[in-house]
């Protein structure tokens, strides 16, 4: 019989993906938002444009998902380019 160790709550929580959300604002041009998404997140132009239009039409878009530490880093970098961002648990 193989024994396994129980999974701790922190191990389970660390597997929950986090999303970086960009919110619409009346200041930044659509071309600028596209450029920032390409520069910070390394998205190809087509993906960056699609995400930018989602922000423009729906008021927000999840532009990246992954672990919490990277989500917070990306959100901070996007804020450095004056984009309004938040970090949320994915699916919320």
Automatic annotation (TrEMBL):
<dbReference type="Pfam" id="PF02617">
    <property type="entry name" value="ClpS"/>
</dbReference>
<keyword id="KW-0378">Hydrolase</keyword>
<dbReference type="GO" id="GO:0008233">
    <property type="term" value="F:peptidase activity"/>
</dbReference>
<feature type="domain" description="Adaptor protein ClpS core">
    <location>
        <begin position="17"/>
        <end position="81"/>
    </location>
</feature>
<dbReference type="InterPro" id="IPR014719">
    <property type="entry name" value="Ribosomal_bL12_C/ClpS-like"/>
</dbReference>
<dbReference type="InterPro" id="IPR022935">
    <property type="entry name" value="ClpS"/>
</dbReference>
<dbReference type="GO" id="GO:0030163">
    <property type="term" value="P:protein catabolic process"/>
</dbReference>
<dbReference type="GO" id="GO:0006508">
    <property type="term" value="P:proteolysis"/>
</dbReference>
<dbReference type="InterPro" id="IPR003769">
    <property type="entry name" value="ClpS_core"/>
</dbReference>
<protein>
    <submittedName>
        <fullName>ATP-dependent Clp protease adaptor protein ClpS</fullName>
    </submittedName>
</protein>
<keyword id="KW-0645">Protease</keyword>
């Amino acid at each position: 019989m193989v024994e396994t160790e129980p999974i701790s709550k922190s191990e389970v929580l660390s597997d929950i993906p986090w999303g970086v959300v960009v919110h619409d604002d009346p200041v930044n041009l659509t071309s600028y938002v596209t450029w920032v998404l390409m520069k910070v997140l390394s998205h190809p132009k087509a993906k960056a444009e699609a995400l930018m239009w989602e922000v423009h039409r729906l008021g927000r878009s999840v532009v990246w998902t992954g672990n919490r530490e990277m989500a917070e880093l990306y959100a901070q970098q996007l804020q450095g380019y004056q984009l309004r961002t938040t970090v949320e648990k994915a699916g919320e």
